[in-house]
Amino acid sequence: MTTLSQPQQKRFIRLPVVKDKTGQGRSSIYDGVAAGTFPAPVKIGSRAVAWLEHEVDAWIDARVQAARDAR
User: If DSSP codes are grouped into helix, strand and coil, which group holds residue 38?
Assistant: First the structure.
């Protein structure tokens, strides 16, 4: 199925949403960031970070595709 490409809406999501979307825990997320295998958060305040939702979604899509390709 072909879909039309639409501009990706950029939205920040905080850690609880990232955890919910990925099924990963806090430590696994930050381990992935440190290893370069998970998108890095963006500093949005003096003590706050968030992730770009489309980057997390792309990571999820890549994991699904890799799992399907391995079959």
Answer: coil
